[in-house]
Every structure is written in C-alpha cells, then in structure tokens.
Design goal:
Blueprint: H1 2-20, E1 26-35, H2 38-51, E2 56-59, H3 61-66, H4 68-76, E3 80-83, H5 96-114, E4 120-121, H6 132-138, E5 142-143, E6 147-150, H7 160-168, E7 175-180, H8 184-199, E8 202-205, H9 207-215
Parallel strand pairs: 1-2, 1-7, 1-8, 2-3, 4-5, 6-7
Bound molecules: zinc ion.
Zinc ion binds next to β1.
Length: 220
C-alpha cells in the first residue's frame, strides 16, 4: 500500500513538474514595418516600454520625413531602426538608378532627420533582387535575411485572432516575426502576442542582436 502511494505521489509530482517546468530560453525578433505613423506608433512604443522589450522598426524614408520625432523617440527608447526603402516600391519595377535612389535616399533621410544610422536594409514586400546587396553595401548596409514568419497583418481579410495565431504558432528559436504599424488590429492584439511568446520562453531581440545570436549558434 505504502509503495503504491509512493508511486502515485511520485507520478503526480513528475506530472506537476513537467507542466510547470521553466521553458528553455529562445529568441525572437519582432519587426514593425512601414512607419513611422502618427496613429499607432506612440501606442506601440508605450506597449513595448510596458512589456520591457525592444523591437525593430522598418521605417520608410517618406514617413520619416513626415514624422522624424517619432523615429527619434523610438531610438531614444532603445529600439532599432532599419532602412525599409525611401518610397516602398517593388524592386522589379525599378531600373538600377531608381532602385539605388530608393535605398540610398532612405539612408540619407534617416541619418539626417533622426541622427541615427541604420545598419540593415529590410526588403519592401520581402522581395529580393540581386542588385540590392551591392547597392546597399555602398552605404554600409547589410541586407537582413532572417528566418521569417509573417503575421500577414497586411491582409485586410484577416481577423485580429487570425493575426495573433499566425504570430504565436510554431515559432522556432531565431525567428523574426513581421507586423505592420498601420494595422489597428495589430496594436490591439500585440500585448497578447507578447505575453504568449514570453510564456513559450522567448526573449526579444532587435535585428542586430538577432544577427549576432544566429552567427554564434552552432549549426543544427
Ligand atoms: Zn513594408
């Protein structure tokens, strides 16, 4: 009887421990594209401050020209700004001169208006083009090419819950998750997404931190 009780107790303890076990630390990077905007930027910044996390903002040059103060606030609060082009055009639609302008002009605008020098070029529409890396290198930009999961919050047919599920399901260590500043539903649901990612054991890195983390990872 005593032995049986002991086994039952051990089983229950093991089951309890496995439920409450601390998750192993994993890393994720959140990127918010196409800002800065007046509508949602301040709210995002307040949420990230409350959550104690830092993210990456993929800023468009023309928006930085309109709202340089928001960009400065993001930098002051410790977030990373990356160059997301000047006018957010499809690279395939641009000749070499126009493509170079879209990359270089954004870099000049961010440096001039924000006093901050982005280290990364972040592809508009996640559309790669072999001409981009050499142009970006001319202004000391590297092209960020992560393991990407998109919340697909640019799709107006997706509900808040669908955006959330895309951002929290099957997220692997080292993933970058894509959002957009212009989507009101993303502002609404991002606290729940951050809470769930934290529960899954994730810590939050900027692009530069994530790039460094991935370089130092042993091959799997
Ligand atoms: Zn974009």
């Amino acid at each position: 009887m005593f032995i049986r009780l002991l086994f039952i107790t051990m089983f229950l303890l093991t089951a309890t421990c496995s439920v409450k076990a601390e998750p192993a630390t994993k890393y994720v990077a959140l990127v918010f594209d196409d800002g800065p905007t007046t509508d949602n930027s301040q709210e995002f910044l307040a949420i990230f401050e409350g959550e104690g996390i830092h993210v990456t903002f993929g800023y468009i040059g023309t928006n930085v020209e309109k709202h340089p103060d928001i960009a400065k606030t993001a930098v002051d609060k410790g977030h990373e700004i990356v160059n997301h082009s000047y006018a957010h055009l499809h690279p395939k639609d641009l000749n070499d001169t126009a493509l170079e302008h879209d990359i270089v002009k954004a870099q000049e605008v961010i440096i001039e208006k924000v006093g901050y020098t982005p280290k990364w070029y972040w592809l508009p529409f996640v559309e790669s083009d072999p001409r981009i890396a050499p142009i970006a290198a001319k202004v000391n930009l590297k092209v960020y090419a992560p393991k990407l999961v998109s919340s697909e919050d640019y799709r107006r047919d997706l509900t808040t819950e669908q955006i959330k599920q895309r951002a929290i399901t099957n997220i692997a260590d080292g993933t970058t998750i894509l959002f957009h500043e212009f989507r009101n539903e993303t502002v609404t649901v991002i606290p729940e997404i951050i809470t769930e990612l934290k529960r899954q054991g994730f810590l939050f890195l900027t692009f530069s931190q994530m790039a460094e983390y991935l370089v130092n990872q042993p091959p799997r």
